[in-house]
Amino acid sequence: xxxxxxxxxxxxxxxxxxxxxxxxxxxxxxxxxxxxxxxxxxxxxxxxxxxxxxxxxxxxxxxxxxxxxxxxxxxxxxxxxxxxxxxxxxxxxxxxxxxxxxxxxxxxxxxxxxxxxxxxxxxxxxxxxxxxxxxxxxxxxxxxxxxxxxxxxxxxxxxxxxxxxxxxxxxxxxxxxxxxxxxxxxxxxxxxxxxxxxxxxxxxxxxxxxxxxxxxxxxxxxxxxxxxxxxxxxxxxxxxxxxxxxxxxxxxxxxxxxxxxxxxxxxxxxxxxxxxxxxxxxxxxxxxxxxxxxxxxxxxxxxxxxxxxxxxxxxxxxxxxxxxxxxxxxxxxxxxxxxxxxxxxxxxxxxxxxxxxxxxxxxxxxxxxxxxxxxxxxxxxxxxxxxxxxxxxxxxxxxxxxxxxxxxxxxxxxxx
Amino acid sequence: xxxxxxxxxxxxxxxxxxxxxxxxxxxxxxxxxxxxxxxxxxxxxxxxxxxxxxxxxxxxxxxxxxxxxxxxxxxxxxxxxxxxxxxxxxxxxxxxxxxxxxxxxxxxxxxxxxxxxxxxxxxxxxxxxxxxxxxxxxxxxxxxxxxxxxxxxxxxxxxxxxxxxxxxxxxxxxxxxxxxxxxxxxxxxxxxxxxxxxxxxxxxxxxxxxxxxxxxxxxxxxxxxxxxxxxxxxxxxxxxxxxxxxxxxxxxxxxxxxxxxxxxxxxxxxxxxxxxxxxxxxxxxxxxxxxxxxxxxxxxxxxxxxxxxxxxxxxxxxxxxxxxxxxxxxxxxxxxxxxxxxxxxxxxxxxxxxxxxxxxxxxxxxxxxxxxxxxxxxxxx
Lengths: 416, 381
Known about the structure:
The complex is a heterodimer. In chain A, 41% of the residues lie in helices and 20% in strands. Chain A has helices at residues 20-28, 53-56, 66-72, 83-100, 120-123, 126-141, 154-163, 177-181, 194-202, 208-214, 216-223, 225-235, 266-285, 318-331, 364-382, 402-410, and strands at residues 12-17, 37-40, 48-51, 77-79, 104-108, 111-115, 146-151, 169-171, 252-262, 288-299, 304-315, 339-351. Chain A is globular, with a radius of gyration of 24 Å. Chain B is elongated.
């Protein structure tokens, strides 16, 4: 494998933590090691977030409905996800990546692309970087393992990291790309989900070699110009995307599928308050402010809608997030249906150190009070066992109280 | 109908009306301009249901009276390309509009006249009489502070606030605000407008465009509960007012500011343009530090660079040089480009309180309030 260290075509790494959430739980509670651990909520409408490799042997995988997971793996041990903890570990891991290259593009908490073209000489080659990376992650986190793919482009790197999971290192030989791809099933291609897979199977294309031989015209005819062309390129191992490190493209969000469909009103308010609090906390933890608030709604009949609004004043406080999400929800046409899923997201994130333009009409004393409360909450969170402190939930008056709600609206910095 | 007129006059009328006609309206009939020929002359009308505009051409030879609807954008293009000084226009038996300009001939389909909304230009209620040039100048200086985003309808506007013989004209986007004051008198027998009227920016822009080509020294503007209307021999405009609440603007005007400086507009403008070069979209901020007779404007952005520009000021009041204040340079540049004055007066308290910009002669005739940026001074150092 070391011969690849001299190959300057290997400039991308895809790094993927192995069963990340489960691995963190085992790290924090070693008694779980070797057991079929399932992260998720075991309720009637929950889904599996992550399963340990032992649980995967019974056929449990992420996004599987919890009910089905319980059936397949009755002896499974369930743990609720601990987002804040995973974020903390994720930051450590991303920190390790950044020691090797400034070109890090996180895809989620547990995986990232690394552009290493500029680091090859410094560290002595792609394979050396990949090995050191794996070692350092193991050291820094106290025992987590990571699977790494090294390749000439992003698509192949991602494909490679998956080939020898867990704890694997796979290098794509730039001279034998076609031999690697040809026998793989089409769904190994990034972006080919169940729907595209079925469409391809329907026309008799099951392996990547079939795609290549089918020709571009056939793919374009069945999948449309851009997808067809893109798939044809990927089937040839071609992918010219570069690393995107732009922070603005990131987002922080929180969503929830409810046990029973909920109605718009106090139940949705309850969730949005909680979500706003959590999202705002993540923003503050990462020293960011959000310019855009997004709302995602899925109804009982699986109609999914999203709405977004750009704030006049970027925020990292729960109040404006909640108020905005609630007014976005008020505009959604539910057509009498209940809400199955609600998500509150933020985008267009800017560093906290950027100059902030306050408004002429905002209630600055109130804004300052909220900020002080948030700082107190943040501090209490960092103290061991200080989790008892919570914000009073009276961020705004309930909508039913229309006599006072009107005058309240005027001070709403986003409403104007 | 059949008419003949000067091509240039028709072009002017249609181009004014095209400012109202929406590009992509909810009702397709609104893309049409209505042309009517009567004994009184030729009239061109357009509306988007919020704003209605009628331009009048007196010098026209009407051979046959009548009216028709023509796609406004297309008609405008035809008139722009017509080089003959005279133009003749008729609707033929098949209902097509035939335009003859010298040796060029065009036929356009006409629209369903009965579907076109009727526009009323005879307003009842109070009206104000005002110096035309002063109103124009005030509208231009004030509307620069209005919200650019049309979805923020209550601030995508200019407020007329009548207090007896004084009219306050106000715009804000929530971060800056301009307040002008002009004296008015009653324009008719139904009294002088009292209280608040919110005019949408589109209507204000059209009104300003119309007023700038009028010649009378004084003009009359009608304001009633729902509409603002302007009627003259040449052109009539009516515009639905914004329903909503304007921010409580008086509360946001800072009281007595301790540190007051007079600055030459052009010098400040140059300094701002220079320091703006070293800002980015994310750090769109410039830093002012004032002294007795000079001030320093500076900016810096990582990976971009730094700038520092000195310019002269004249201290009028105060002695506190110990603070710095940060502003969005775009706001100040837009303000200075509009004030049409060689000097500007700048009142400040500290780095956090809104700054008040006014004109050295007559401080209350125009006030522009800008909220400073909050900048992490640790970062800055």
